[in-house]
Amino acid sequence: MTRARSRRTARRKIKRLIRKTLKIVCAVWDFIARHPAMLAMPLIIFLLVLTIQMHEFEKQVQAWDQEIRQQQEQIEELYDRQDPVEQTDMTDVYGCKSLYGTYDFPWNTMSQDWGSDQVTGFYYHEISEECKAAGGELPTIIQVYTYIVCEQNGVDYEMVFALIEQESRCRWDAEGDNGTSIGLMQVSEKWHMQRMEELGAYDLKNPYQNVLVGVNYLSEIQNDLRGTVPDEDLPYYTLAVYNYGKQGAKANLWDQGVVKYTYNTKIMDRAQQLKEEKKKAEEGCG
């Protein structure tokens, strides 16, 4: 999972470098057009060399793409060869038959190399009927990934699951706010560019990168608020900031004495329902 993501991150950084380089090239050509007598030949030579280097970058990106596709084909072939009879049904443990499977785009853009220690406590949930009716889906692979990211960031998994249902109806390509809020967690690149850079997440329509950015933001909000609000209300305050922004939440809610409102109450009620579903399943196994 980490290796594939690092390759994609490197590839996107190269593409970003290429885009920035093209802007520089355009600026240089504009300068030459305005001042043709000044250093025209050295600049032309420089641009030729730069163009060659860009071509090499593109070749490297294509090579990485080919390598990732080959690895994915090998994984799919391995799953196809497995005898279903020999596979252990893990429904009693995780709520689903297996934590591994073969997926179509975009779910196949993440490897499934998590360890057993990373999935301890995970439980698969069916999305709501409303989400299904909207064309949403949250297959096992993204649920496991989301759970791991939540555990790493100290954010409640069921809360994030419910937030995804609320924000995007579980549609990985959802667009809101006139196209500025993207993906499962409706993340806006405008407000999270630095966060995306730091996390190496540049494609918000990639469900895994979208979740990574969204959960990281929730963790930041939660840590910022912790100790300043009652512990039992921390999730409600956190969701309010996620929904409104801190200043918006203060002006529209907190200054009016409002902590719980439709958005965060609906998410927390659904999260509690998911927790009870998991608990009931665990008690049934015990």
TrEMBL record:
Q: Which residues cross the membrane?
A: 21-50
Alphabetical list of Gene3D superfamilies matching this protein = 1.10.530.10
Can you give the residue ranges of the Transglycosylase SLT domain?
151-248
InterPro entries for this protein: Lysozyme-like_dom_sf, Transglycosylase_SLT_dom_1
Pfam families, alphabetized: SLT
Q: Does the keyword Disulfide bond apply?
A: no
Q: Which UniProt keywords apply?
A: Coiled coil, Membrane, Transmembrane, Transmembrane helix
Which residue windows are coiled coil? 54-81
Q: Could you name the domain of life of the organism this protein comes from? A: Bacteria
SUPFAM superfamilies per the record? Lysozyme-like
Report what the protein is called. Transglycosylase SLT domain protein
